[in-house]
């Protein structure tokens, strides 16, 4: 069975981004930085790619064509154990970025993230229709997600 990993394509910020993500996500770690060999692509000795690991997943940051910016069509999801972890991860990722809504943000490099609590899907899937509606209504009032408020919305009868 093939293994899957993520490759994020940056204009020139691959190493900086890799170090940022490895520090922002608890348990993240920086890996190898590969420099451009003679003959390119790019300037010899410049950063070609940087490997890192977050959430137990291998990720590669690649310097390439700046004409292909990130969009919200693809996002990384950081599932957090509790509100304290969610707050720490959110604050780290949104620094110099921009909050969006419903747990989404764009980081300083333009990568879209969803920062969500563990059990989010169970809250949404495991309730009756009225509970799902209350969940969605509560979530739509939030930028950064509040786990207690979402649970309370589902539990309210």
TrEMBL record:
SUPFAM superfamilies: Glyoxalase/Bleomycin resistance protein/Dihydroxybiphenyl dioxygenase (SSF54593). Signal peptide: none annotated. InterPro entries: 3_dmu_93_MTrfase, Glyas_Bleomycin-R_OHBP_Dase, PhnB-like. Residues 4-116 form the PhnB-like domain. Pfam families: 3-dmu-9_3-mt. This is 3-demethylubiquinone-9 3-methyltransferase.
């Amino acid at each position: 069975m093939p293994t899957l990993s993520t490759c994020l394509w940056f204009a020139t910020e691959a190493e900086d981004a890799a170090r940022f993500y490895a520090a922002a996500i608890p348990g993240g770690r920086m890996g190898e930085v590969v420099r451009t060999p003679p003959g390119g692509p790019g300037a010899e000795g410049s950063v070609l790619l940087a490997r890192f690991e977050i959430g137990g997943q291998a990720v590669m940051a690649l310097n390439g064509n700046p004409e292909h910016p990130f969009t919200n069509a693809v996002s990384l999801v950081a599932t957090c154990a509790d509100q304290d972890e969610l707050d720490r991860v959110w604050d780290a990722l949104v620094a110099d970025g921009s909050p969006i809504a419903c747990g989404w943000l764009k980081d300083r490099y333009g990568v879209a993230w969803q920062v969500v609590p563990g059990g989010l899907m169970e809250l949404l899937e495991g309730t009756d229709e009225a509970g799902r509606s209350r969940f969605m209504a509560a979530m739509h009032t939030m930028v950064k997600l509040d786990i207690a408020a979402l649970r309370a919305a589902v539990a309210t009868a």
